[in-house]
Amino acid sequence: MNEITPTPAERAEKLKGLGSSRKRVEDVRFTQGKGNYVDDIKLPGMLFGDFVRSPYAHARVVSIDAEAAKQVPGVVAVLTAADLAPLGLHWMPTLAGDKQMVLADGKVLFQGQEVAFVVATDRYAAADAVELVEVDYEELPVVTDPFKALEPDAPVLREDIADQKEGAHGARRHHNHIFTWEQGDREATEKVLAEADVVAEEMIYYHRTHPCPLETCGCVASMDKVNGKLTVWGTFQAPHAVRTVASLISGIAEHNIRIISPDIGGGFGNKVGVYPGYICSIVASIVTGKPVKWVEDRMENLMATAFARDYWMQGKIAATKDGRITGLWCHVTADHGGFDACADPTKFPAGFFNICTGSYDIPVAWLAVDGVYTNKAPGGVAYRCSFRVTEAAYLIERMIEVLAIKLGIDAAELRRKNFIRKDQFPYRSALGWEYDSGDYHTAWDKALAAVGYEDLRAEQADRVESFRRGETRKLMGVGLTFFTEIVGAGPVKNCDILGLGMFDSCEIRIHPTGSAIARLGTISQGQGHATTFAQILASEIGIPADNITIEEGDTDTAPYGLGTYGSRSTPVAGAATAMAGRKIRAKAQMIAAYLLEVHDDDVEWDVDRFVVKGAPERFKAMAEIAFAAYNQAIPGIEPGLEAVSYYDPPNMTYPFGAYVCVVDVDVDTGQVDIRRFYALDDCGTRINPMIIEGQVHGGLTEALAIAMGQEIAYDELGNVKTGTLMDFFVPTAWETPHYETDWTTTPSPHHPIGAKGVGESPNVGGVPCFSNAVNDAFRAFGHVHAHMPHDHWRVWKIAHDLGLHG
Ligand code: PCD
Ligand SMILES: [Cu+]
């Protein structure tokens, strides 16, 4: 038989499908300054909104006088809670089942809280008027410490619910208590702890930080009173959910609301929540009949929109003398700020924190999380980790190190000894998850071999000796981390947001000439969906990725979906894309069989065509099939070639990774030099290796930021001490080390193409890895654990407290 040319491999290559490091199609517009962000949207007659914000963290609002502000030329309106109250919009529901003030209703609960909204013909007039709004505050005692917030005589923060005994997640036992979330078997775990050979215990604090995307949050609301249509362009990570929520709280019918997320300059979880700025802009547009733009500045973004972390985690881990882990106990005090506005699936008030048994086969565990109100900003977003997973990974990966010290066992060996084995998957964890697939031992051995682990330890020991001899002032730390992520929320049966099941969707239209458009319920904020989702389709339907447009973010055109966060796009919308592609292929098969005059079952798929079985020279390529779909009357088959899939994943996906970081720490200055960072990620089937590498670089850099200095810090009066980029650490190329990336591939057994998410992994694994490295540098001197962020001062302090400064 003659060789068919081009060969299947050559044809596959042309498609730029799965596994191709296809260049990002969106970069053509971004690198030429042709992106279209919220602030690029300029409508005729557009007004601008700006907030009066509270300088106090806790105060009564006695009166607001806006007369002088209204006199500023260009000022159109000044909204206060009193104006919103008749509409029932002075408070709004939060994603966590709580409610939050849109504008201060009698009091303020955190510094930077929205008090009044000034609307003017330009930003400058609005800002000038903001200065002239006179608010009379009466200061109240401030609580920024969640432990103090729970003391019996602590000030009542939420007077609106002070007497409410039931919260959204069960009983409340104190006026500042929000919920207690308990998982696992307390009795059995405490029994194991009581009888264990060894128990390691530590309080691990994961400090408050903030996603701080390059572009802050903003929107343009435009009410067209003639058609009754409201259009809102905004930096939304979940445009459809925003539309539904907007409809429910405004009473405008959902078909009359159009939400558009244009290009987004980074989200990182910051743009999942619903903020007062959106509500105020919508109300202002309805009131004035003009479009209203609101874009927050950097300080507003850092002070008032969703923070991340702020978890005090008390851990106890039990083991046998030879290092077999027998149980994990954990209690978390979670500081949620003034309102519980955490972005988590409804049934998970602490997100997926119960993944805290990590990559280890721990027979029994118990976890309780107490949510607490304080005078800090509300929020509690993922920030590059699927719902509190980075906190969980940080806890277990620090506890493993603490246990290794206590047992006197090498931490790499301790991990290896306790990993869930390959043959145990699907693995049911003690706290209730079913891990889909993994091969931890292989990944770990590959990572340790790649960095020359034994040699690193030998070098470290030598360094300690030279330090003791006074020959050097630098110590060396080796940070290890093995993490398991949980991404892809995710089964509708247990994951929803405000009652909306967390499925996702893809709709495909193949055009007559064999090119296509696919629309998804997700929205890229920089991840490169336009590039990668076209690759999934290219492999499924044999149309080159370059001939497929991917569109997201316009609720008038995209199918309903729950959006992009929690690394769910690939696991959920990516699966929907593959499934919709398969529907296209099924119809294409019938068309091909008709054209080839054989039975449907007598043709088979071959890269970009259907061929007659056993006669590959007889085929119909996808382009030809597409044309036939629009030009021939095929008996029993409708014209056209379109498909839609709404995908409810059967389980989440569990990406994992092995990271190693080597640091040199200057004992006298606290300066930490990152000598080496090796990251092995396993995200199952890899769609675009180049994009994955970019995701890993970005996530590791955010991890570096968090571990080494980035923090939202408050003083005792509740003043935000890190409200500008002078104080809030965002690494530049200068601080960012070189990263070595690597991978193994363990496909997800339930995902149609075997892919797992990857965007968040580097943050989840990176933070404990940097932190472990810093802590490890001082291990030889009896040091066990120091809180992040490991900025120079805090590192210097570790050395100082150990007496290393002589
Ligand atoms: N296997 C695989 C996987 C994946 N991939 C790719 O990669 C990416 C990613 O993915 P994922 O993982 O699925 O994710 P998504 O969903 O898409 O996204 C999300 C994420 O993403 C990350 N990344 C990024 N990047 C950028 N540029 N920007 C941004 O913003 C961002 N963000 C961040 C975050 S934070 Mo959250 O929201 O916190 O929850 S979550 C998150 C895309 O493109 C995809 O396709 C591939 O290729 N392969
Ligand atoms: Cu998270």
From TrEMBL:
A Gene Ontology molecular function term of the record: iron ion binding
Catalysed reactions listed for this entry: CO + a quinone + H2O = a quinol + CO2
Domain of life per record: Bacteria
Cofactor: Mo-molybdopterin cytosine dinucleotide; Cu(+)
Chain ranges of the Aldehyde oxidase/xanthine dehydrogenase a/b hammerhead domain: 32-141
Keywords linked to the UniProt accession: Copper, Metal-binding, Molybdenum, Oxidoreductase
EC id: 1.2.5.3
Top EC category: oxidoreductase
Matching SUPFAM superfamilies: CO dehydrogenase molybdoprotein N-domain-like, Molybdenum cofactor-binding domain
Purpose of the protein: Catalyzes the oxidation of carbon monoxide to carbon dioxide.
Subunit structure: Dimer of heterotrimers. Each heterotrimer consists of a large, a medium and a small subunit.
Family annotation (PANTHER family): ALDEHYDE OXIDASE 1-RELATED, XANTHINE DEHYDROGENASE
Protein name listed in UniProt: Carbon monoxide dehydrogenase large chain
